Amino acid sequence: MKSVKDYYKNEGKHFLIALAPEFPYLSLSNGKYLPYLSSLEGYYDLVCPQLYNQGGDGMWVEEMDQWLSQDNNESKEDFLYYMMDSLASGTRGYTTIPHDKLVMGLPANKDAAATGYVIDPSAVLNVMKRLKQSGNAIRGLSAWSINWDAGQDKNGQSYSYEFIKRYKDIVTPV
Hints:
The chain is α/β, with parallel strands linked by helices. Helices cover about 30% and strands about 10% of the residues. The protein has a single domain (about 15-165), classed as Alpha-Beta Barrel (TIM Barrel), CATH 3.20.20.80. Helix 3 (about 75-90) packs parallel to helix 4 (about 120-135).
């Protein structure tokens, strides 16, 4: 990927490298993705940690004296905030990803992932505000696939672009 990016750079073009690791693999204790990430340091444009499909995985937040699970809807805002803040600042046992390259990866709708869907979109909007106030404003949001936003459920009901309608004001172009 480095060679391809260098090739296009020499051609005066931009080759985007976006990574989407599962969030547990960005921890210092379970960092299966860390060698890959460090090998692309200075080359990757975006890192979009997958904050879904992890069941009960989560993180311990010492400040709250609490385990925040990825699949707990009641504490979803806190989980999203502390996970993104941990990655942007390299705290709470996670590697550092520059906040201007960090993108929150969420399911586009309730069917797009087994777990991780955000029921109340204000949770995501609040997280973005909190990150900005803390000096760790992240790059934006991502969803797994446009098919989940533009598609239909198993009963033929349209997803009606739920993701983009909910979050259009905070999504930023690359």
